[in-house]
């Protein structure tokens, strides 16, 4: 019986020892992925902001709050089409940034289509990749860092400028009890396209720029607190400034009109929801990447030790009987 039990334990030890690396290096890369049909909504606010009053003489004024609603919807059908050519799992996100003034009316709306590798988060280039209808070719990351983010700088895409620049790793931080990585990016004043959807019906942004010589300029300092396990930001803040220069702004001081200036943060209820969601996914990723493989390896060693102990004990008794 002991001999049979030791063989069973040995077989289980071999099974655990074989399953541990298989789970870590085969299953993990194939299972730790962004789901293609993900849907997410985020509400951000800029309190005590400055906003250009388009209907009131085109002058900037202080407002109590500007609300930014960001929706993200995974396009499963588009993902399948791109995957057929790419030969790998691809996620296609159709996003919309909808900016609302203090009166509840739209200030602007900017759609995007973002394509990336479901596991590595590397950008994937295909027809349809765009920002506000303009074709783009992203370099680096946007919205999300890779799984098991490294403490280093990354290339990060800014949708306003349609360009990528380094986002700098500053150091570790603790956010709501979670150990995270803190990143910062500053985009200097840059001329950017005007939103195609303006708050006044009938205004063509291209006509404004061509007919009057008015241009839109933008700068931002962005801060992200990123969970290094999932690569998902648990918090974000942005200091954004937009100015109209020349043309209709020529009579303003220094020929500049502030279109928007504010400190943008996640609304508290959405901040809590985001943190809880990331914390839940963090546990799942760690279970697949670390906890399960390590547990199986430890179980394999324990089973091997038990099998050897039973075998040694059985042989000892056999020797005693022979004597």
Which sequence of SSEs, written as H and E, runs from N to C?
A: HEEHEEEEEEEHEEEH
Unreliable stretches (pLDDT < 50, length at least 5) are none
Beta-strand share of residues:
35-45%
Oligomeric state of shown chains: single chain
| Strand order in the largest sheet | 6-5-4-3-2-1-12-11-10-9-8-7
Q: What Rg do the Cα atoms give?
A: 28 Å
Count, helices: 4
Question: Helical amount among residues, as a percent range?
Answer: 25-40%
Overall spatial form: elongated
Give the integer mean of the pLDDT values. Answer: 88
According to DSSP, the number of beta strands is 12
Straight-line N-to-C gap: 21 Å
**Alpha-beta classification:** alpha+beta
| Sheet with the most strands, sense and barrel status | 12 strands, antiparallel
Can you describe this structure in just a few lines?
The chain is an alpha+beta fold and about 325 residues long. The protein has 4 helices and 12 strands. It is about 30% helix and about 40% strand.
What does this structure look like?
This protein is α+β, with helices and mostly antiparallel strands and 323 residues long. The protein is built from four helices and twelve strands, in the order H-E-E-H-E-E-E-E-E-E-E-H-E-E-E-H. A hairpin with a 4-residue loop joins strand 7 and strand 8. The two termini are 21 Å apart. Helix 1 packs antiparallel against helix 4. The model has no long low-confidence stretch (mean pLDDT 88).
């Amino acid at each position: 019986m002991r001999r049979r039990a030791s063989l069973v334990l040995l077989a289980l030890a071999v099974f655990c020892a074989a399953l541990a690396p298989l789970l870590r290096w085969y299953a993990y890369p194939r299972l730790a992925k962004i789901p293609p049909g993900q849907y997410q909504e985020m509400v951000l606010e800029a309190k005590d902001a400055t906003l250009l009053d388009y209907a009131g003489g085109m002058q900037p004024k202080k407002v109590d709050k500007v609300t930014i609603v960001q929706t993200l919807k995974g396009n499963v059908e588009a993902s399948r089409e791109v995957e057929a050519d790419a030969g790998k799992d691809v996620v296609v996100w159709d996003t919309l940034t909808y900016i609302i003034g203090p009166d509840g009316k739209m200030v602007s709306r900017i759609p995007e289509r973002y394509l990336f590798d479901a596991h590595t988060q590397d950008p994937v280039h295909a027809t349809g990749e765009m920002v506000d209808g303009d074709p783009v070719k992203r370099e680096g990351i946007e919205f999300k860092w890779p799984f098991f983010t490294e403490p280093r700088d990354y290339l990060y895409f800014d949708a306003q400028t349609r360009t990528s620049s380094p986002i700098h790793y500053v150091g570790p931080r603790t956010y709501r009890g979670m150990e995270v990585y803190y990143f910062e990016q500053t985009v200097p004043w840059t001329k950017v396209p005007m939103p195609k959807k303006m708050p006044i019906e009938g205004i063509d942004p291209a006509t404004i720029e061509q007919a009057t010589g008015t241009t839109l300029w933008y700068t931002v300092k962005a801060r992200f607190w990123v969970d290094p396990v999932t690569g998902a930001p648990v918090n974000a803040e942005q200091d954004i400034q937009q100015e109209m220069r020349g043309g209709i702004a020529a009579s303003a001081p220094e020929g500049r009109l502030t279109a928007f200036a504010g400190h943008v943060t996640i609304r508290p209820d959405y901040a809590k929801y985001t943190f809880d969601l990331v914390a839940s996914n963090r546990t799942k990723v760690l279970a697949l990447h670390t906890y399960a493989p390590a547990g199986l390896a430890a179980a394999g060693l324990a089973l091997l030790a038990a099998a050897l102990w039973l075998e040694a004990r059985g042989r000892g008794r056999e020797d005693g009987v022979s004597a």
